[in-house]
Amino acid sequence: MKKIIILVAMLSFCLGLLFAQPVFGIRAGLNVASLTGEDDMDDYGSKLGFHVGAMMQYPMSGNFILQPELLYTMKGGTFELEFLGKNEITGTVNYIEMPLLVKYNVKMPTIKIQPYIGASIGYLLIAEIENKKTVLGVTTTTTDDVIDDMETLEAGLNLGADVIVMQNFMLGLRYNMGLTEIVKKDTKFKNNVIMVNLGFLFGN
């Protein structure tokens, strides 16, 4: 399934280069990331991060637009455990991610609204677990590299909308839902991220 998604993304990207005049852009913003999957852990919390990257827009038939992107994005989450004291655990998983979005361009007098849906493939770069442990009022913090315990690739589904104002400026809101488990062991953790961003389109 992962190979099929990658092949479709690459094929769409190449077809866009051949048959359309692309518009290039950049975008960056805030991530509110969380983890889901383990039913016996109720104290999940969110983790703030950021994303930054580039995009291209290819006009298709009608008002449809194909938009591949290349992003550096920070995911993960937090949760608490009571084991030999209080453990505040933060998981950090950072990816290079390629979303492939299909957008519908709604033109209005002064703005454009572009709702979209699309798939994404992420390649894991960093995976760390930080544990802030408190015992009898004394707090210690340890950080472990766990990249060998993680899946290298992650597939995701993206739902969102961009608003284009003043021809070139983009305001965006996106929900990135992880479709595949991110840990190799017998756990069911998946990423979920709410993304708020600003962008700029060159020569639009």
String of helices and strands: HEEEEEEEEEEE
* CATH class group: Mainly Beta
Number of domains: 1
Q: Helical region count? A: 1
Kindly state the number of beta strands.
Answer: 11
Tell me the strand order in the biggest sheet: 1-3-4-5-7-9-10-11
Provide a compact summary of the structure.
This protein is mainly β and 204 residues long. It has one helix spanning 2-19; strands spanning 23-36, 44-45, 47-59, 64-82, 86-104, 106-107, 111-135, 138-145, 153-165, 169-178, 190-202.
Folded structure, characterized:
- Helices cover 9% and strands 68% of the residues.
- It has 204 residues and is mostly beta strands.
- It has a single domain, classed as Porin (Beta Barrel).
- The mean pLDDT is 86.
- The protein has an 8-stranded antiparallel barrel with strand order 1-3-4-5-7-9-10-11.
- The protein contains 1 helix and 11 strands; from the N terminus they run αβββββββββββ.
List the helices and strands and how they pair.
Elements: H1 2-19, E1 23-36, E2 44-45, E3 47-59, E4 64-82, E5 86-104, E6 106-107, E7 111-135, E8 138-145, E9 153-165, E10 169-178, E11 190-202
Antiparallel strand pairs: 1-3, 1-11, 2-4, 3-4, 4-5, 5-7, 6-7, 7-8, 7-9, 9-10, 10-11
List key phrases describing it.
204 residues; elongated
